[in-house]
Amino acid sequence: MTTMPSLAVEATAPARTSAPEHLVVSGATKRFGAVTVLDDLSISVAKGEFVSLLGPSGCGKTTLLRCVAGLLRLDRGRILVAGAEITRLPAHKRNIGVVFQNYALFPHLTVAENLGFGLRAQGVSRAEAAPRVAEALALVRMTEHADKPVTALSGGQQQRVAVARALAVRPSLLLLDEPFSALDRKLREVMQVELKHLLREVGITAIFVTHDQEEALVVSDRIAVMNAGRIEQLADPATLYGRPASLYVLDFVGQSTRLTGQVMESAEGEVTVDTPLGRVRAPGLFLSGSQVVVAVRPEAMMLDGVAAGMPPSAGINRLTTRIREVSFLGSRTLLHLEVPDSGTTVNRALIELPRLPEGASPGNPVTVAFRAADTMVFPAS
Amino acid sequence: MSVSAAAPPASSLSAARAALPQLPRRLDPLALLALPALLFMAVVFLMPLLLLLWASVRAEGGFSLAGYVRVLGDSYYIGVIGNSLRLGLVTAFGALLLGYPAAFALARARGYAQAILFALVFLPLTVSIIVKSFGWGIVLRRDGILNWLLISLGLIERPLRMLFTEESLYAGMINVFLPFMVLPIYSVVRMLDPRLSEAAATLGASPLFRFLRITLPLSLPGVVAGLSIVFSLAVAAYVTPSLLMGDRYMTMSMVMAKAFLNLRDWQLGSAMAAVLLALAVAVVVGAGLLQRRLARHGQ
Q1: Minimal Cα–Cα distance from A110 to chain B, Å?
Q2: Which residues lie below 8 Å from residue B218, measured CB to CB, with a gap of 6+?
Q3: Model's pTM, two decimal places?
Q4: At CB < 8 Å, which residues of chain B contact A?
Q5: Does any CB of chain B come closer than 8 Å to the CB of residue A328?
Q6: A108 close to B (CB below 8 A)
Q7: Contacts A129 to B, Cβ<8 Å
Q8: Sequence ranges of the domains in chain B
Q9: Which residues of chain A have pLDDT under 50?
């Protein structure tokens, strides 16, 4: 299951160990014809760190991964691993492991032969490779399947073989391209935790490519949200969720209430915004009259009855509307609220509650409350 | 043929069948679709074949293996069989040498380049073998284009004898049968996942190691298919050897033609035909078995 990170906006990010930078990509640019897929992108990853490249298809995340692996050449920019420049090295001289989206297991070889392939390719003798293959098999609990053809394995087993095959050559860095996308939802959630644990034990530096924000939140120490060949924000999951740097990041990570409006007042680091559901106060520095989007995470919203106990000085925003739809999700319930003037796709309102309140059915009036401090303001794009 | 093979186990049809185990397993109705082709082949192929086999063992008094004794006991005819086998093997492996890389180029090419390459593979098929073989004659003659070219370039002083040599026959045969090598290999290579080679590269495998351990083994089913098709066609070839070599290089098909058309020796012709058939069947069946093994290993 996904564990939502701490929501307090002011929560300090877990102190990152100041390990030396292990992978450094600087000024990476890649064009395919007229399309710029990587646009002067830079990123550094610390030793032992797990970083996700998150973004929609076409944002350049897989291209970046392939450039780091040596399967594509950068047009401009440099790539360094452990201080050594590898920008021009061919893939087979980089010692960077890759777990492919479809795993790319060798179909004509057994599980053990797949695991031993890299060692044999690097000139390790059969006798010397055997114990290391056995070790890799044990690592992913596939020892009993050693002599099976890889095509006889389930999806989860294939993924484990792909990971073990990449780790068997002790790469300096592991790249994983959508490693969970071929698994069904239930298995995916199990494997995410299992793989994270395994890689942590091995102590390797890993980069995940994914378009699934929940997956990124689960597996990463830091997440790079990518947009059109650039990194929009690089931060730990809690910061990314609690303090998204832009509407794009807000949109891509988690759900939120979003209301377009105009700034009516701006004073002392606080703005008052006129939205279709009423006035909302939020911390922010915007000129009066500017068009903005205010956003609130669904679990930061309360039904008014709950909020009534809060002191009035807490800076509470209150909005009254009607319930549009109720989504029961087991451990929580989402109420989708009516927003007048929701002609734009931006406007939507939803509140997350631990349990379904009485009288919460479509059409009923409802008043929601949320702290001004939990309210985010972005310039309207 | 695989038409009669059961539908994939996942299909609802076989699932329903599995749910009724007490019913005797009957012929898949889909197998009936092969019936027209089977009838057609029975009339135009199986019957003449049986008549031919019958003719190969028929004698004045009734039954005799004299035809086979003549074919397999005579060093001349053994030499002819050897000629045919050598021609088949050289043609098959020569076509493999040229066709294997071509199939990769065809599989990797995109857009116009692929269309042009496809045309280059298919166009020769549209030219009659007779026309092509005469064309070879024009090119390779003592006063032909190739000799003229070589002399003009100053590479040779006197025209070389190129026509009616075994080398020219091999070249001509490879030219005729190359498409039958390229197409089956292409159809296998096209399906190869390029990520397999990439995965091997990220594991530290050099380009040569990748080719030998990944690409080559996975393309073998296409290679086996191409070899068996080209060998079967080349070992039975008649027109190209007759036109490029004539009596100087007798093949089994040429002996058969002579036996039937000139000598009216039905016993000799049909016995030779039966031997050729046995060779071809052995190659096709052997290749089929090899392919199944490769496929099972490569699943």
Answers
A1: 9
A2: A107, A108, B188, B192, B196, B298
A3: 0.80
A4: 193, 195-196, 198-207, 209-210, 213-214, 217-218, 297-299
A5: no
A6: yes
A7: none
A8: 55-123+166-298
A9: 1-17
pLDDT tens, position by position, A11-69: 344 444 455 789 999 999 999 999 999 999 999 999 999 999 999 988 999 999 999 99
What is the CA angle A289-A314-A326, rounded to 5? 80
Chain B contacts of A91, Cβ < 8 Å?
Answer: 198, 201-202
B12: which 2 tokens? 């609802």
Nearest Cβ partner of A98 from B193, B202, B207?
A: B202
Tell me: domain B55-123+166-298, CATH 3.40.50.2300, correct? no
CA distance A293 to A307: 23
Q: Domains plus CATH for chain A?
A: 21-251 (3.40.50.300), 255-379 (2.40.50.140)
Q: Is the model's pLDDT at B299 over the cut of 50?
A: no
